[in-house]
Amino acid sequence: MKENSQERLLRLLSLFADEEKGEWSVDEASVHLGISASQTYRYFRTLASAGYISAYTTGRYVLGPAIIELDRKLRIGDPMIHAARSIMREMLSTAPSASIAILCRYFRGQVMCVHEEFETYQHHEISYERGQPRPLYQGAASKVILANLPLRQARAYFNHAPDKFNQFGLGANWTEVKRSLRELRSQPAIITAGELGTSASGISAPIYDDKRVLGSVSLVLPITVATEEVTSFLMPVVAAAGQEMTRKMQHLAQLQQ
Amino acid sequence: MKENSQERLLRLLSLFADEEKGEWSVDEASVHLGISASQTYRYFRTLASAGYISAYTTGRYVLGPAIIELDRKLRIGDPMIHAARSIMREMLSTAPSASIAILCRYFRGQVMCVHEEFETYQHHEISYERGQPRPLYQGAASKVILANLPLRQARAYFNHAPDKFNQFGLGANWTEVKRSLRELRSQPAIITAGELGTSASGISAPIYDDKRVLGSVSLVLPITVATEEVTSFLMPVVAAAGQEMTRKMQHLAQLQQ
DNA sequence: GCAAAATTATCACAATACGAAAAAAATTGT
DNA sequence: ACAATTTTTTTCGTATTGTGATAATTTTGC
To answer: With a CB-CB cutoff of 8 Å, which residues 190-249 of chain B face chain A?
Structure first.
């Protein structure tokens, strides 16, 4: 827990991401971070003059335009998203209309959607939303990552929320969980229904780097069209997309560019 | 140009936004920033372990998932975007189909789109793209901000790129520019055609905070439908949207919430 | 397996980040 | 318009730590 001044600055910035709170005053942040008011003012000034936060009215700060600028650069330049785009589009073309394809990443012990592809835009209520961290035990895109994590890590997550693991059908104790993770891993792609909200069904396959799992590609379909027939057709499609992504990621690493 | 260590850290992060380059090695960043290699390693480690950058292969760093997380929070929580959403949608409903509504902000001496509303998604080629800074002299959404800036600032920008100002019809010298800015300011909304690419036309109105201009709301239409008749109908619509936004921003400031 | 590159650790010192308190500036109430 | 708050910046002395150079270690490419 030794922290230097740069880490403190970033921790202040992450206040705007972590908490449900979208705006912070200097005083609030000061007590929350355990930093003196004068120093917190210095941090706020630094972040504000770089555009990462912005005072939309006196004393109240929110995230600033520099975030948008960075996000655009990421959208355009991220190698994983770039590699995924065509694969996801092709996968989507074989799926029923109103389906969407999502690319997720393992991040900070959670799962975060980093890219979406869809034919026609429609607000999907409760699902993987770009940029929203989701737990590892809920939904296909998460579970497939969990199942491919080293057992040590999986166990640590299980110990942290055993009730949740049970609630989402992964087992009531570690022995059961271990068995169901092995079972999930043995399938080419994994399918869930109604685990985030009740209206969607997910089909997901893992993406590997070299040794460890990086994330997952998934199809999310309206639960009404996710019949046994449809999902059994799509399972190998999604599995192939995952394998193709894995291949591309390894190829990328070799290009060293 | 006195810079502390936090500012240096943010400057390193902004390398990933400023330059055309989307990926950096430690050495490249080290020479570019004029910081020793060992210290640059420390900065990279700090940013990486907070998720702002990520090594997608050994030695090559790109922006990390934390950016996406912050961007989502901004999209959801930003007071200006929140205030704009309904106004933009209503404005859009009176416009020809295939039009889009954009919300721009004055940022770092440039103009950046921070939010878009559209009926049906279609990739608009060259226009205001969310997160891409644009110069003040090009396009309606920019010009309306420029025209409402304090003259001192406008003059400074003119001196910085007089040829560009002339190219986009603002005048060949400061006297002419000053006159055309006044002329632009006198209109309820300003209209341009084909200034970004050749296929779009823009109608924009300014948004004020209390005294200074914050940004602009605009309609972007396919140039083919932007007839005199259509634009003269839409001009007061956009102007009203700008005024409504101004009202909401001032109301927001008074709520102090 | 070995050479090369990437990353981390060590160290000594100057630079600066820090909190407390005071000063200045901006904002609000009346 | 003026006073009362609140917000923000400055000052200052000191202990902390950020820093570059170099070495040690780990990882990677072949």
So the answer is: none
Chain B nearest C-alpha distance from A38 (Å): 16
The answer to whether residue B157 sits within a structural domain is yes
Alpha-carbon distance A96 to A93, whole Å? 8
Listed residue (B134, B78, B144, B139) closest to B109, CA to CA: B134
Question: What's the DSSP call for residue B96?
Answer: P
Q: Which residues contact B199 (CB under 8 A, 6 or more apart)?
A: B125, B126, B222, B223
Question: A97: which residues sit within 8 A by CB, 6+ positions away?
Answer: A119, A120
A222 lies in which domain range? Answer: 78-255
Mutate to test the interface with B, among A52, A71, A123 (most CBs of B within 10 A): A71
Q: Report yes or no on A69 lying in a domain.
A: no
Distances in whole angstroms, Cα of residue A95 to Cα of each of A92, A100, A222, A225, B82:
5, 8, 11, 10, 34
Give the count of domains, chain B.
Answer: 2
Per-residue pLDDT of chain B (257 residues; tens, 9 = 90+): 578 999 999 999 999 998 778 899 999 999 999 999 999 999 999 999 999 999 988 889 999 999 999 999 999 999 999 999 999 999 999 999 889 999 999 999 999 999 999 987 766 667 899 999 999 999 999 999 999 999 989 999 999 999 999 999 999 999 999 999 999 999 999 999 999 988 899 999 999 987 889 999 999 999 999 999 999 999 999 999 999 999 988 877 654 33
Does the predicted model carry a pTM greater than 0.90?
Answer: yes
